[in-house]
Amino acid sequence: MDFQVGFNYKYDHLALKPFASFELGVNRTMFQHRIFPRFTIGAEYCLLKARNLQFGPQLCYSYSILKVNNSSSHANSYNEVYGGLYVCLGGKVQFKTALLTGWQNERYFSTYSGKMNGANTLGFTVNFGVSYAF
Fold it and tell me: pTM for the complete prediction?
């Protein structure tokens, strides 16, 4: 739907690592001047931890909202539940990628029926990030 850029906080102490993130859609927010926020919570589990390598499954839930056009007073909302795998390379400075797939639900106002409707689909996301470990 959009390229998301944002911040992520992860509690990296044990094998189970909970995280939360806030992102903004680049195309919608910057170029179309419509704020497109996305909030995510989730956890990853480190199956393999070597000196500069971490690998394991990740599960997350995301919620985002977007006002599609100025002529409507209604906003579309998106719920996403994804699972997949992540790989993290590095020490203090880490490079991370994750490939996730799962359920995506869009809620939108239908001018035809005059009420909120929903659509479900199979979705995916690919995440790339750079982080610093304190």
Answer: 0.88
